[in-house]
Amino acid sequence: MDRVHAMQVFLRVVESRSFVRAAETLGLPASSVTAIIKRLEKHLQIRLLNRSTRNLSLTPEGERYLSRCREILDLIDDTESSLHGSAERPHGRLRVDVPAGIVHALILPKLEQFQQRYPDVYLMIGVNDRQVDLIQEGIDCVIRTGSLHNSALVARRLGELRWITCAAPSYLEEKGIPEGLEDLPLHRAVHYFSSTTRRVTELNFTEDGSSVGVAVPGSVAVNETGLYIKLGLDGGGLMQLAEILVADQLRTGELVEVLADMRPAPVPVSLFYPHQRFLSPAMRAFADWTAELFSTVG
C-alpha cells in the first residue's frame, strides 16, 4: 500500500466530508477511495472514520492521525517544492475557480500558451464569482477581484483591472451623455448584484481625489457578466465594469465610455489558496502565468 497516497486520500475525504466528493476531486472512482480508506484502517488496526448514510466524522484516533498526516504531507510538499529545479516541469491536476469575465476575456484566449508551456499540468477551471469553500470543494486556488476577508486564505496579488463607465450609442442618444455626477439621477443603469449578498452594487467614481458611490436608478439587475454586457449593448443603461471585458466593443463603437475623467480606482486581482497548502509548482506556474496576463491590461 502506498501510504503517502493513502494519507492524501484520507485528508481529501475529511476535507470534503464525503467519499463521493473526495473521489470527484481526486479523479478516482468512489469505490477506489472507499477501498483505500479500508486498507489504511486495516493497516493501522484502528477505525479512522465513523460512517453513516448521512454523516461522516472522525474518531478520536482519526483526529490524531489527521493532524500528523497534514504535517507529513505539508513537509513532503515543501521539500519537493524546495528541490524543484528549472529543468523539472510542473505537473499534476490543478483545480482553479475564476470569475466568468476574467476567464472569457483573459484566460481562454491565451490558454493554449499555458498548455504549451506546462503540458503536464491538467487544469480544471470552475467559472463563477461566488464565495467557495476551497477545502470542502477540493479547489486548489481561486482568482477574485477586490479584497477577500478570509484569514484561512493566503493572497498573491496578480495585478489590477481598470474600471470604466460605458453605454451603448442608442442609449446615449436617448438620454444624452452625462457630464457630471449631478446628471446621473436622470439616467438609468443596468444593475449588477452579488451572488453572495444579493446586494445591488452602486456605480463608483473618483471626484476630487475621493471615491463616491452613486445609486443610479434601474429596472433590472443580473449577476452574470455576459448577461450584464448584453443588456448594456441592447441600450439598457449605463454599465460599470473592467475595461478589458468590453475592449472589443469599445473599439468597434458598440459601447462608448462616459465620465472618463471620473473613473473609479483600479480594482486589485489576487490568487487565493488555503494556508495549509504550500504553493505547489503547478499552482506557482499558474499564478506566474496569470500575473503575466494581467501585466498586459493594467
Describe the SSE topology:
Elements: H1 3-16, H2 19-26, H3 30-44, E1 49-51, E2 56-58, H4 60-82, E3 92-98, H5 100-107, H6 111-117, E4 121-127, H7 134-137, E5 141-145, E6 153-161, E7 163-167, H8 169-175, E8 191-192, E9 203-207, E10 210-214, E11 221-222, H9 225-233, E12 239-242, H10 247-252, E13 256-258, E14 267-274, H11 281-295
Parallel strand pairs: 3-4, 3-5, 8-11
Antiparallel strand pairs: 1-2, 5-14, 6-14, 7-12, 7-13, 9-10
Structural class: alpha/beta
Give me the CATH fold name of the largest domain: D-Maltodextrin-Binding Protein, domain 2
Q: How much helical structure, as a percent, in the residues?
A: 25-40%
Task: Give the amount of beta strand, in percent.
Answer: 15-25%
For the record, what is the CATH homologous superfamily label of the largest domain?
Answer: Periplasmic binding protein-like II
Categorize the overall geometry: elongated
Instruction: Give, in spatial order, the strands making up the sheet with the most strands.
Output: 4-3-5-14-6
Total domain modules: 3
Order of helices and strands: HHHEEHEHHEHEEEHEEEEHEHEEH
CATH architecture of the largest domain: 3-Layer(aba) Sandwich
The rounded distance between the terminal residues' Cα atoms is 50 Å
Q: Note the total helix count.
A: 11
**How many beta-strand elements?**
14
Largest sheet: 5 strands, mixed
**What is the radius of gyration computed over CA atoms, rounded to a whole number of angstroms?**
24 Å
Low-pLDDT residue intervals, each spanning 5 or more residues: none
CATH top-level class of the largest domain: Alpha Beta
Mean pLDDT: 87
